[in-house]
Specification:
Blueprint (H helix, E strand, L loop, with lengths): L8 H11 L5 E6 L14 E7 L8 E6 L3 E6 L4 E5 L16 E2 L8 E6 L3 E6 L4 E6 L13 E7 L8 E6 L3 E6 L4 E6 L13 E7 L8 E6 L3 E6 L4 E5 L14 E6 L8 E6 L3 E6 L4 E5 L14 E6 L8 E6 L3 E6 L4 E6 L14 E6 L14 H4 L4 E8 L2 E7 L24 H9 L7 H12 L1 H5 L22 H11 L5 H15 L15 H4 L12 H13 L3 H19 L1
Antiparallel strand pairs: 1-2, 1-28, 3-4, 4-5, 5-6, 7-8, 8-9, 9-10, 11-12, 12-13, 13-14, 15-16, 16-17, 17-18, 19-20, 20-21, 21-22, 23-24, 24-25, 25-26, 27-28
Helix pairs in contact: 4-7
Length: 581
């Protein structure tokens, strides 16, 4: 299809943005089910970014894109949905063509949403998860006798944990708890739950035991494959692999998580999944893609499938700060230019190129984009320009949240972790907050936080990571990734005689929950860090806790198998060398 002339849709979009100065959301792609939220428009396909009147003057904090529906989270904690509702995935029975509020969540302050093929998850500020939509494969995590659940319900089987993130695959779901545990439920036909191959469907959230102790920072789910990313850039994948979407140099499905060794040295900071392809963003702003490439969704200027992660060379020279995967297309945002690039399937307009052609390599999304920190346009152009703050994709639809130049907001940077979505870790700010409430009786909220953190090997392994010198991205047998001086300092700052309640709670959690559960064969080198840091804790040198803490911990070290013991031995040697230097 030829590009539209300047007096076509492009001018309409310019006029809309100029007239509606507070419009903050653009959308493009498949609109046939109302999933773009544009109301009762005639077109079934929107070929380039178009403003969505509903979001005029509203701030969108998160967007979930399902196969034929979309969910929008506003900054006041309310959720709106639109699109196909055949299986209750909207959570309401109102209009499908424009966003309508999910009133069943009125009492909740929602902080995140995610959409599967035909189900939706929402997470509130208390760490509680809610689910609705198709339930046939257990993807809601609810005891449901019906094919679908049309009203959001709390996943009560997760009530004992505080959830930090949720992620939907087509017919499976994941949750990452504040304590660092990854839970899975739903369809397991291809191993996408990471729980082995005993069951084809699991209707209640189950912990992935094989990943216990690893400090994760992100979970992601595709059509029938899943990923978990550690704080130091290690990538674990499992599930369907028929196109190589796990990046493991083969096409064999995996029923348990497997480390992608080829990405360990690349400093990956974010992973997203399409139906059968995967994209990874690095700390330096590079993009790797792998899996199905039949529509060009890998961006390598071919339609080949890739069974190994391969860098998108046509994006080199640009620092990519955001990526998003749709069903068979990919978006990449470059903050320095303010532009969005897209590649892959274009038949439903999801590339935003004003064409229905597929793109095998990155092509610019049409729009008057300006960078956040660039020169402001002249007054005559101000209403025509947009500063992107966040991109979203899923199904065959794409979205971009933006601000106008005169009141622009800095764009999100996926290379910078969001503290609100992370697992608990021990740091100076946390300790200051705890001790600030420790003069009287400890509030239950603080007691719970201390208990979760010091009961979790994942949380302790994610603490004290090298900050000013982020060598934790190079964690291996010779590099622990932790700053031992910081560990020593923070332990002594936390455990002071003036705060006996804090000390007692830390000791109780270590004794009853952490040490008895330490495995003899930790799943990764990142799960070994606590064996280096815990001895720096004053409690392990205290005669009063020698029998209850030091001796059991020593037994746990002795019981480690040969390989982890060897790694720990090397780590101690290199620490000694560094100290002597």
């Amino acid at each position: 299809m030829r590009d539209a002339p300047d007096n076509g849709p492009r001018e309409v979009w310019r006029t809309e943005v100029s007239r509606v100065r507070l419009v903050t959301m653009l959308c493009w792609g498949n609109a046939s089910f109302g999933q773009l939220g544009l109301g009762g428009i005639d077109e079934e396909i929107v070929l380039e970014p178009r403003s969505c009147d509903f979001f005029r003057g509203r701030k969108v904090c998160d967007v979930g894109c399902g196969h034929k529906h979309s969910a929008f989270l506003l900054d006041d904690g309310t959720v709106y949905t639109c699109g196909c509702n055949d299986l209750g995935q909207l959570g309401h029975d109102k209009s499908r063509k424009k966003p309508e509020q999910v009133t069943a969540l009125d009492a909740q302050n929602i902080v995140a949403v995610s959409c599967g093929e035909a189900h939706t998850l929402a997470l509130n500020d208390k760490g509680q998860a809610f689910a609705w939509g198709l339930a046939s494969d257990g993807q809601l995590g609810l005891p449901c006798a019906e094919e679908c659940m049309r009203v959001p319900r709390n996943i009560k089987s997760l009530s004992e944990v505080q959830v930090a993130q949720v992620a939907c695959g087509y017919r499976h779901s994941h949750a990452l708890s504040k304590g660092g545990t990854i839970f899975s439920w739903g369809q397991n036909k291809y191993g996408q739950l990471g729980l082995g191959n005993d069951c084809k469907c699991i209707f209640s959230p189950q912990a992935i035991q094989s990943l216990q102790g690893i400090p994760f920072m992100q979970i992601a789910a595709g059509g029938a494959h899943s990923f978990a990313l550690t704080m130091s850039g290690a990538v674990f994948g499992w599930g369907r692999n028929n196109f190589g979407q796990l990046g493991l140099n083969d096409n064999t499905d995996r029923y348990c998580p497997v480390l992608l060794k080829s990405l360990r040295s690349q400093r990956v900071v974010y992973v997203c999944c399409g139906e059968d392809h995967t994209a990874a963003l690095t700390k330096e702003g590079g993009v790797f893609t792998f899996g199905a490439g039949g529509y060009g969704q890998l961006g390598h200027n071919t339609t080949n499938h890739e069974i190994n992660p391969r860098k998108v060379f046509e994006l080199m020279g640009n620092v990519v700060t955001q990526i998003a995967c749709g069903r068979q297309h990919t978006l990449a945002f470059v903050a320095s230019t303010g532009k969005i690039n897209s590649f892959g399937l274009g038949g439903n307009g999801q590339l935003g190129t004003r064409s229905m052609c597929n793109r095998k390599s990155p092509a610019p999304v049409k729009g008057n984009w300006v960078p956040h920190n660039g020169p402001c346009p002249s007054d005559t152009d101000a209403g025509q320009s947009c500063c992107v703050t966040r991109i979203y994709a899923g199904g065959d639809q794409s979205f971009a949240h933006f601000s106008v130049p005169e009141n622009h907001t800095p764009p999100d940077d996926f290379r910078v972790p969001d503290p609100s979505r992370e697992i608990y870790t021990l740091n100076a700010e946390v300790i200051e907050r705890w001790l600030g409430h420790a003069h009287g009786r400890l509030p239950q909220e603080i007691v719970n936080e201390i208990d979760v953190l010091f009961s979790s090997s994942s949380c302790l392994n994610g603490s004290f990571l090298s900050g000013s010198h982020p060598d934790h991205y190079d964690t291996g047998s010779r590099t622990s990734g932790v700053d031992m001086s910081t560990a020593r300092l923070l332990f002594h700052k936390l455990l002071q005689p003036e705060y006996p309640q804090v000390t007692q709670q830390v000791a109780a959690s270590l004794e009853k929950n952490l040490i008895p559960k330490l495995p003899c064969s930790p799943p990764d080198v990142e799960a070994l860090r606590l064996y280096l840091t815990l001895p720096e804790c004053p409690l392990f040198n205290n005669p009063n806790t020698f029998v209850t803490l030091a001796i059991p911990f020593g037994k746990a070290v002795i019981n480690l198998r040969e390989t982890p013991l060897k790694v720990l031995g090397q780590a101690h040697v290199f620490r000694a060398i560094k100290r002597s230097d």
